[in-house]
Amino acid sequence: MAPCSNQALVRLLGASMADKKVIAAAQHFRCPRCDEVKKVEQPRETRPLRPDHQLRFNHEVSTDVFEVHDCRGGSHAILSIADLATRYHIAARVGGGGTPSSHRRSFEPFLDHANLVHRQCW
Best exposed site among 90, 99, 118, 120 by fewest CB in 10 Å? Predict the structure, then answer.
């Protein structure tokens, strides 16, 4: 667990009626572990920009069906759809008892509710 900030430490000490010298010392506290981690941090990696036509919602989506198991041993199929331009993600249970067949009727209620995929795609 990471240590709290100096401001939070001072507030906690003040609320617990700590000695004024302790509170004054806490304002200058430095955590050596936090300093090490800050030195090691690398700059965030940037991704190349996409062309404008690929930044539209629903231009490119990624879908997957995966199976999760509950504590009773049952299995449930989850349909996951992610819009790659906006990073919008939606997932829902589409069937029980294992992964449903690829027949579109298994997924139609979810797609109607999600309103993400146009009918002409089918």
Answer: 120
Three-state DSSP class for 72? coil
Based on the fold, state whether residues 104 and 71 are members of the same structural domain: yes
Tens digit of pLDDT for each residue in 37-82? 776 666 777 777 777 767 788 888 888 888 888 898 888 888 888 8
Q: Which residue has the tokens 């490119």?
A: 60
Residues 80 and 23 in one domain: no
Residue 17 Rama label (left phi>0; alpha psi -120 to 50; beta): left
Which residues, in sequence order, are CB contacts of 84 under 8 Å at separation 6+?
54, 59, 60, 61, 62
Give the number of domains in the chain: 2
1 within domain boundaries: no
Residues 58 and 91 in one domain: yes
Residue 22 has pLDDT above 70, yes or no: yes
